[in-house]
Each structure stands twice: as C-alpha cells, then as structure tokens.
Amino acid sequence: MTTSYTVNDAKLNDALDDAHERIQRAEDRLARVACAHVAAAVRDALTDHEPAAPFDATHLRLTGRLGTDVLSTDGTYWTATGEERRIPVGELFDGLLGWVNQLNYGNRHIWRPLCETQAVAGDNGVDYRLDLAQAAQLPDEVHTSARVREIRDRLAAATYRPWSVEEFTWNRNGATVDKDDPDAVHTDFVVSDSSGAKVAEVSVSYDGPEDTDTPAEDVAETRANAELITRAPEDLLYLLAYLDHLAGAADAEELHLRGYCGHCGTALYTSTASETPTALDGSNQCKSGRLPTGRTLSIPHVLRT
Question: Is the peptide bond before 292 cis (omega within 30 degrees of 0)?
C-alpha cells in the first residue's frame, strides 16, 4: 500500500515557529505603539486636544498591581521642574487608561526601558515613571522607513522591466568571437531594459600589461555583477512585496486570476511575490500525457492570449 500524501515535518515545524515569531513581533510593536499613544493621550488631556498648545508633562506614573499583569495609572505626572501634578480622573477614561492597560508584564521588555522605577508602592505593587518624550518617539518600522521609501522611489523611476544582459567577446581586431576563443582579449556585458535602451555596461580586458592576469575569474565575477544588475529590479520588487507581507500591510502571497492556459484551459494565477503564472496547486505544467512509446510528455502552462 502506498501513502496518500507526504508531509514535510521539518518545513511544517519551521512554518509554525515562523508564524509564532511574527505574532510576537506584532505584539511587541503594538506595545511600543501603545507607549506612544500614552504620550499622545497625556498631551491631549493637558491641551484639551489641541496638539499645538503648550503643556509641561515629562513623566507619567504607571503602576503594576499585585495580582494582575496589566499596568494602570492614577494620572499622576511630573513637570520638567519635578513638580508633581495629576490629570483629572474624568480625563483618564478618555483614551489614556485604555492605552496604559495595553501594557503588561508580558511586554515588559518593550515599555520598561522607557521608564524609571519610582518606588515600591507598598502592598499595591511597583510604580514606574514613564519618560513621555521617549515614549512619543515611535521608531519607524523597516517597511515604512525613509530608506525603504527611497528604494521604492528609485525603483518606480527606473526604466522598463524586465532587464536583460548580453555578452560580447572581442579579439584584437575588434571582431566578435566566441567567449572561449583563444584570441579573445575583451568581454563586454550590456544590460538593457525591455525597450532595448542600454541601462549599464561592465567589461573586462585581458590583453595588455595593465589588464587582469586572471581573466577567467574576472570575467566570471563581472558576469555575476551584470546578472545582479539585471535581476535587481525584479528582486527588489519581490523583497519589498514580502516586506509588506511580513509587516501585515499587504498579503504578498494572495493569488490573483491572471488568465487561462492555452493548452489545457487551467486557470492560472499570479501574486505580488511571484509573477510566474501557476495553477492553484502551484503547478506550472499541464497534466502529463503518455505517448504511444511509453514516454511521458510534460507541457508548460502558457497564458492564453
């Protein structure tokens, strides 16, 4: 008896670990966002929701109560001169307390570095002083950082994709020869966009005394550089799509109907992460047919035009 299917247990375990890590990163980010919202809520309470109005709070009391993991606050805050004041109780329920309650001992590693320990609050637990200026400075996530925005802008401004590379080998007379020809003295790699416009050119000379004395190695390295340039736009698109996917901004793996196979009529799908049309099961070939000779024929899916 044969098995109905196989399971890649190692891949399954890795996928579970990866999913749990994503959840943990999301929870950590939520805690850090909550800290910034606490700072914003203190400002709003002291300025009557006028963000541009002046206010003088620098620290807020957070209290960890015994018997509960969730932090709380009584609204006590301190000014830059060290004066202790209190936000009216009614203002606490206008968002501030709710954000403080997002903080707990499970995400302590996020909010604790933003605090000073004020004092042990008797039998009630421990009081902390949250540095509001630090809390308000919410770090950018990678996918929304200035560097990634610049990458997106450069990619959008680049010429037509996909790019391709051609290799030309020359002899001393300026004639093209095969790349393995013993008379070859120079190799060019020309990268072009889909319209035929030249994007980049890299080359290696190996004839004169000032040229490389390891031509095979240098040509191989330069060829790899040309391939890197050629693939850069598609690779960046793929990585940016997955960056958004991991950050929860967009599902890079979501399938979109692209069309139907011209051979077998199977519906073909693509995603942001992969522009290769495949069937729902991920296959890229029509169902195999057996020839009279017994040989199996596999035909790749082709989008119907």
Answer: no
